[in-house]
Amino acid sequence: MDWRILIVLTPLLIAGGWAVFNIGAAALRQVQLFLSKES
């Protein structure tokens, strides 16, 4: 595997993972809020 591909993809994967982590946390809070309001 070419090391240049890794150098290009690593920051993109880190940024993507960070975005998914933040959006996932917010989505989880929304779901919990929705479920607590329903009961």
What does it look like?
The protein has 39 residues and is mostly helical. It has 1 helix and no strands. It has one helix at residues 3-38. The longest helix is centred in the middle third of the chain and has 36 residues, at 3-38. It is rod-shaped, with a radius of gyration of 17 Å. The chain starts with a helix and ends with a helix. The chain crosses the membrane at residues 6-28. Loosely associated component of the core of photosystem II (PSII). PSII is a light-driven water plastoquinone oxidoreductase, using light energy to abstract electrons from H(2)O, generating a proton gradient subsequently used for ATP formation. Belongs to the PsbY family.
Strand-pairing-aware structural class: mainly alpha
Q: In sequence order, what are the helices and strands, one letter per element?
A: H
Write down the Rg: 17 Å
Biggest sheet record: none
- Give the overall shape, derived from the CA principal axes: rod-shaped
- Counted by DSSP, the helix tally is 1
Q: Kindly report the average pLDDT value.
A: 93
Distance between the termini: 53 Å
Instruction: Identify low-pLDDT runs.
Output: none
Query: How many strands?
Result: 0
Strand content: under 5%
Fraction of residues in helix: over 70%
List keywords for this structure.
39 residues, mainly alpha, membrane
Care to give the gist of this entry?
This protein is mostly helical and 39 residues long. Helices cover 92% and strands 0% of the residues.
Give the arrangement of secondary structure elements.
Blueprint: H1 3-38
Pfam families: PsbY
Family: Belongs to the PsbY family.
Membrane topology: Single-pass membrane protein
